[in-house]
Design brief:
With 449 residues, this protein is α+β, with helices and mostly antiparallel strands. The chain has two domains: 221 residues, PmbA/TldD superfamily (PmbA/TldD fold, 2-Layer Sandwich), CATH 3.30.2290; 215 residues, no CATH class. Helices cover 24% and strands 37% of the residues. The protein is built from nine helices and 17 strands. The strands form three sheets. It has a six-stranded antiparallel sheet. A hairpin with a 2-residue loop joins β13 and β14. The protein starts with 8 loop residues before the first helix and ends with a strand. The relative contact order is 0.12.
Length: 449
C-alpha cells in the first residue's frame, strides 16, 4: 500500500478517490448491478482541563469505508476501517452476501444519474489549525479561568475544552460519479457551577467554526458560561398556569429541528409525522420563511452534494407560512412518488427569516410570561405533535425579568405552537447550522406547583 503524506491534502483525496473507484470496479466484477461507496479520513486533537489542571489530551486519526451494493432491487451494505485492497475486496464480498439474502425492495437503488452533481464547488470548508498541545491547553485554561473569575459565586467547574478536526469525504457510484472535498471544524466550550445559599446551578457556553479565526475568543466563551450560570442562581418553581412562552434563540433552534423531523422522507412514508399531507398548507403565520442553504460559504453543515451524490441547492421549506418542500433522499422520494430534494444525510444550514426585535424587545412584547432557556427530556409525540418538556428559564412580569425558574414542565402541541408563533427575534448569537432568533409563542401550559 502506497504511503500517503498526511500533510498533502490533494494527495490524500486522490488516494480516497482511487479506493472508491477500485471498490466500485470490484463490486461490478462480483456481479453487482449497481453500487455506491463513501470513504473518509479524519484527524483531530481534543484537549480538556478542569480546575486549572489538564484532564485529557486526545489525538485521533481514523479512516472509514462504506459500500452499498445492489443485485437488482436487493441491497446489501458493509463497512470497514481498513482501506487496504484486501479489506476492500472483503467489504464488497460481505455486501454482496447480504444483498443475496435480503428481500427485494422495489424502491431500492441509486439516485437518477441526471441528478448527480456536475461539479463540486469550493465552499471554503477547509481551514486547518496547526494547533500544538501546549497552545490548546493554554486556550482551554484561559477559557476556564475567565469563567471562574466572573464572580466568587462560581464555586466549581465541569471543565473547558478545545478541539480541532479536519477530514476528507469522498463519495462515488456506478453512474460514474465521484466527488470529494476536505473540511475542518474547530471548537471551544466551558461549563461551570455556581452557588448562592442553598441554590446551586450549572450552565455552559461554546463556540464552533470551520476556521479558527471565526471562533469567539476563549475569554469571551468562558465569561459567557459564567454569566449564564450566575443568572440561574435563586431559581424556583412557579404555579401551574397558561401563559405566553418565549423560547430563547438556542432553544428555539430545537423547535426548527422538530419541523425538520416531521417533513423528512422517512417520517412521511412511515406515516409517523404530525405534518403528514401538509404540503401546500399553512403551518405558520404568513410572516414566516424558513430556508435551507447547503452551499453557504464556511457553513457548519455545508456540502456540495448529498449522501446520494445529488447536487445540493438552496431552497425554501416554508414561504409565507406555507410548507413548500419536504426533505427527501432518493429512496424516500420513490416511496412517496416524488423527486429527491437533495437531502440524503439531512438538512444543511437551516435558517428562519428573523424579525426586528432583540430579546429585550421580545420580553417587553410578551409582557408577562415564561422565558425558556433550557429544555430537558424528550416528551414529543412525532405522530400527533404533542409536546411536553421539562424546562428552566425566567419568569417575566410587566416586560421585566423577575426571577429564574426551574423544575417546571411546559406543554402544548407543535402544530398549534407553530401556528401561534407571534414573533421571531433577531437575537441569534449562538453557533450552529440552525440559525434562528428567539420565538414568542402565544400560549402554552406551564405545570409547576
Amino acid at each position: 500500500m502506497t504511503e500517503i503524506d498526511p500533510n498533502d491534502n490533494g494527495e490524500r483525496q486522490a488516494h480516497l478517490e482511487q479506493i472508491v473507484q477500485d471498490l466500485l470496479a470490484e463490486a461490478k466484477r462480483q456481479g453487482a448491478t449497481a453500487a455506491e461507496a463513501a470513504a473518509t479520513t479524519n484527524r483531530g486533537l481534543e484537549v480538556s482541563v478542569r480546575l486549572g489542571e489538564v484532564e485529557t489530551v486526545e489525538h485521533t486519526r481514523d479512516s472509514g469505508l462504506g459500500i452499498t451494493l445492489y443485485l437488482g432491487r436487493h441491497k446489501g451494505s458493509a463497512s470497514t476501517s481498513d482501506l487496504s485492497p484486501a479489506a476492500v475486496r472483503d467489504a464488497v464480498s460481505a455486501a454482496r452476501a447480504i444483498a443475496s439474502h435480503t428481500q427485494e425492495d422495489p424502491y431500492a437503488g441509486l439516485a437518477d444519474p441526471e441528478r448527480m452533481a456536475a461539479e463540486v464547488p469550493d465552499l471554503d470548508l477547509y481551514h486547518p489549525w496547526p494547533l500544538q498541545v501546549e497552545d490548546a491547553v493554554g486556550l482551554a485554561l484561559e477559557c476556564e479561568d475567565a469563567a471562574r473569575a466572573t464572580d466568587r459565586r462560581i464555586v466549581n467547574s465541569e471543565g473547558a475544552s478545545v478541539s480541532s478536526h479536519t477530514g476528507i469525504h469522498v463519495y462515488g457510484n456506478s453512474h460514474g460519479f465521484i466527488g470529494g472535498y476536505p473540511s475542518s471544524r474547530h471548537g471551544l466550550s466551558c461549563a461551570v457551577v455556581g452557588q448562592e445559599g442553598e441554590s446551586m446551578q450549572r450552565d455552559y457556553w461554546w463556540s464552533a467554526a470551520r476556521s479558527p479565526q471565526d471562533l469567539d475568543p476563549a475569554e469571551a466563551v468562558g465569561r459567557r458560561a459564567g454569566e449564564r450560570t450566575l443568572a440561574r442562581l435563586g431559581a424556583r418553581q412557579i404555579s401551574t398556569r397558561q401563559s405566553p412562552v418565549l423560547f430563547s434563540a438556542q432553544v428555539a433552534a430545537g423547535l426548527m429541528r422538530h419541523l425538520v423531523s416531521a417533513i423528512t422522507g422517512a417520517s412521511l412514508y412511515r406515516r409517523s409525522s404530525f405534518l403528514l399531507d401538509h404540503m401546500g398548507r399553512r403551518i405558520f403565520p404568513d410572516f414566516v420563511r424558513i430556508r435551507e442553504d447547503p452551499l453557504a460559504t464556511r457553513g457548519l453543515a455545508s456540502a456540495p452534494f448529498d449522501g446520494d451524490g445529488v447536487a445540493t441547492a438552496p431552497k425554501d421549506l416554508v414561504t409565507g407560512g406555507v410548507l413548500c418542500s419536504y426533505l427527501l433522499d432518493a429512496y424516500s422520494a420513490r416511496r412517496l412518488g416524488m423527486e429527491t430534494t437533495g437531502n440524503a444525510g439531512g438538512v444543511r444550514n437551516l435558517r428562519i427569516e428573523m424579525g426586528e426585535m432583540d430579546r429585550d424587545a421580545l420580553i417587553r412584547e410578551m409582557d408577562t410570561g415564561l422565558l425558556v432557556t433550557e429544555l430537558m427530556g424528550h416528551g414529543i409525540n412525532p405522530v400527533t405533535g404533542d409536546y411536553s418538556r421539562g424546562a428552566a428559564g425566567f419568569w417575566v412580569e410587566n416586560g421585566q425579568i423577575r426571577h429564574p425558574v426551574e423544575e417546571i414542565t411546559i406543554a402544548g402541541n407543535l402544530r398549534r405552537m407553530f401556528q401561534g408563533l407571534v414573533a421571531v427575534g433577531r437575537d441569534c448569537d449562538f453557533p450552529g447550522s440552525t440559525r434562528t432568533g428567539s420565538w414568542l409563542i402565544e400560549e402554552m401550559t406551564i405545570a409547576g406547583q
